[in-house]
Amino acid sequence: MSFFSRLFHSSPASQPEPPDGNPVRVAEVEAILEELRPSLKADGGDMQLVRVSDAGVVRVRLVGACGTCAVSSLTLRGALEPRLKERLAWFQSLEAA
Question: Coil, strand, or helix at residue 10?
Fold first, then answer.
C-alpha cells in the first residue's frame, strides 16, 4: 500500500477507540471538532477526541499531518480551545494525547 493510500484510507484496525467520558459532553465536543475538521483534513490531518473527564478536561489526539506539524499547539490553543471555552460552561482545560 502506498504512503498516500495509508494516509487517506484507514483500515478497520486503525480506527480509533471511542472517546471516554460522559456521552453528552463527548457529543458536545465532537460537534465542535466537526466544525474544525474540514480545515484540518484539507491539510492532511485530523483530531480525535480521546477523553472528556468529569473535571472538564478535554483530551484530543492529533493525527495525520497534524500529528507531526510544528504548529499543532497553535491549532489547539488558537482554534479549538477558544471554541470550547466559549460554548461549554463545564470546560476547564485542553490536553494533547
Answer: coil
Residue 62 burial (10 A CB sphere; 0-12, 13-18, 19+): buried
**Rounded Cα distance, 30 and 35, in Å:** 9
Domain 3-96 classification at class level: alpha beta
**CA–centroid distance for 97 within its chain:** 10
Cα–Cα distance, 61 to 86 (Å, whole number): 21
Gap between the Cα atoms of 16 and 44, Å rounded = 17
Closest CA to 87 of 4, 27, 46: 27
- Quote the pTM value: 0.81
Q: What ranges in the chain are assigned the alpha helix state H? A: 3-8, 23-42, 65-68, 72-75, 81-87
**Three-state secondary structure call for residue 90:** coil
- Tens-digit pLDDT profile for residues 32-53: 999 999 999 998 999 999 999 9
